[in-house]
Every structure is written in structure tokens, then in C-alpha cells.
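The instructor's notes for this session suggest beginning with a concrete chain rather than abstract definitions. Hand out the sequence below and ask the class to guess, before any prediction is shown, which regions might be ordered.
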Amino acid sequence: MRLLDHEPDRATRTALTVRALQPLVRAEARAEAPAAGLDPADLEQTVWLRLLERPAVAGPPRDPARWVRDTVRAEARRGRRTARRERPYAGTEPAAPPAGSPEGAALSAAERRALRAAMARLPERCARLLNAMLAPTDPTYREIAGELGMSQGSLGPIRSRCLGCLRRMLAAEVVTPELRGRGR
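After discussion, reveal the predicted structure:
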């Protein structure tokens, strides 16, 4: 018995299938990609990914040419739907500075100072609750309720009222941005 007489493993079968289907996949991808607004290489890569995602028990497709055509067209349709739904970012606002930059660190520190200053002006009950919720140890509602001496069920409604108060305070200090999109 020779080595060639044995059933090839899945990797070998997949490699043989890829080699046999490569010209067809490339041709179909190049034909469908422009109409879908996709890069032909990306569409081709997606088709190969779909082939590799097939379950091991399914093996290669029974009718490879039909499977390639159907898969390429399905992925092209998906690309068209995505292109219709996604809109590029207008870029009217400057991008946030990188997280590790000195400017980003300074802005984050300023935001934290403004938040802490506003929290200090809240009523005592709200200030204590929000300080407990912002603790670096990330306490649970049960721990916060025990620390503040209130019932666990009242934390949610009180937190909601306190955050509303904090939002109103911060909105009065910060200039509201211009309306974007569909104004009324």
C-alpha cells in the first residue's frame, strides 16, 4: 500500500480545492466587485474564508463552480448592503488626540477635575453616592448600600436623580455643540 492510496487529510483536501478553484474565484471576484463597490482582492479573500469556515464534515462543496458563484454573489450583496448603510465620518470635529499623548492626558485630567468639582457641589447624599460608585475598587451595589446605610433597591433611583442633577450642572458650564444632522 502506498501513501497515495490513503485518504488525504482535511488540510490536503482544502489545499487541493483552493488550487483548483483559484482561477474561478479570482475571475468571479473581479467580475462582481466593481458593481458592489468592493476591492476584488477583499472579495476573493472573503470567499476563501467562507470555504475554510465550512464544517469539517461538509468537506469541499459538491458543485464547486456553483458554490463559488453563489458565495461571490452573496458576499457582493452583503458588500452593497453595507455600503448603503454605512456613511463616512464627516470630520467636522477634530479627532480626539491619541490616548498616550500629553494633550490627551491633560484633557482627561481636566475632564476629571471638572467632574469632581461638579460632584462636590451636589447635595451631600448624591456626592457620597457618586463618589462611592466611582471608587477605584469598583464596589457592588450591595457594598455601596452597606457603606452608605441605605437599601440596595433605592440606589438605582437615587443614582438616576443624582446623575440628572449632575448633567444639568455640567450642561450649564459647557457650551452645547451645534446641531448636526436633521435639525427641526
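Then share the key points. Helices lie at 10-36, 40-53, 64-85, 102-120, 124-133, 141-148, 152-173. The two ends are 81 Å apart (CA to CA).
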